[in-house]
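This part of the workshop introduces the protein records we will be handling. Backbone structure tokens are a discrete shorthand for how the chain folds in space. Once this layout is familiar, the rest of the handout is easier to follow. The record below serves as our worked example for the rest of this section.
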Amino acid sequence: MEFLKRHQIEDEKWNQCILQSPNGLIYGLTWFLDELTSNWCAFVIEKEDVYEAVFPVPYKRKFGVKYVCPPFFIQQLGLFSLDYSIANENKVMSLLKQKFKFIELNLNYKAERGEIRKNLVLRLNMAYTDIKNLFSTNHIRNLKKSEKSGLKIIKNSSPENIISLFRSDRGSNIKTYSNLDYQNLLNLCAIASSKNTLISLGVEQDSVLICGGVFMKFKNRIIFLFSGNSNVGKDKGALFFLLNTVIKMYANSGYILDFEGSQNEGLSRFYKGFGAYEENYRFLKINNLPKVLKRIKK
């Protein structure tokens, strides 16, 4: 297993490994990481000119110390491998602890180390009517309400407008995202669109955007990456309408709709109301900093 800096990584080999890995996720692709992380390096197993396993490591610097931290809008990283093995996971964890004294990292659903974090997914391997039978009574009621409100789905809705909708509503109380984080997300959407992996849907009422969602499609998975909703959208059940539309569009396709969470019980209930089930991932935290720094970075 080699440790490689970003400039040493061969993108084509890396992305082929992610593509061919049974647990490969779009978060692990080089262009996805490049847009959302300031720095990243990796552990790589290469045999016969093929990357057989990769483990991306996003990191930052503080007080002259490099530390690992999960980037915004990237839910799961960890080990992606053509043949996942616990032995390789153990090996990379040992090397990771040697390289970095402070580690906070989300690992993917194959990982066996770390604290369990809730994620909810829905298999779209049935006809829409069969999937709809899994919906909760509350969701059916809200869907009927939304369908009577004259809502309209807009395909290829502007990600910038969806981000603005979020920032003017829920995002106004969230101080963790900086202007740069939003710009990184917008840049990511532009690149994803050029690679035909972006699904960007808006919900309008009377030609006014009241809700919208950004989804990423890769392999057999559609990830609900980001959304914006207005007070009008909440009142009209626009998010129910939006997600039901995606389910209807991809029913019987074999795709997995990945809701990306959530630890929040209210959101968890909301996603479960569509018939989603848990496919959890792991959160790894290791603090081996010197005592003087350990108190600063808890």
Q: What stands out?
A: The chain has a mean pLDDT of 94. The two ends are 30 Å apart (CA to CA). The first helix runs from residue 11 to 20. The CA atoms of residues 87 and 173 lie 43 Å apart.
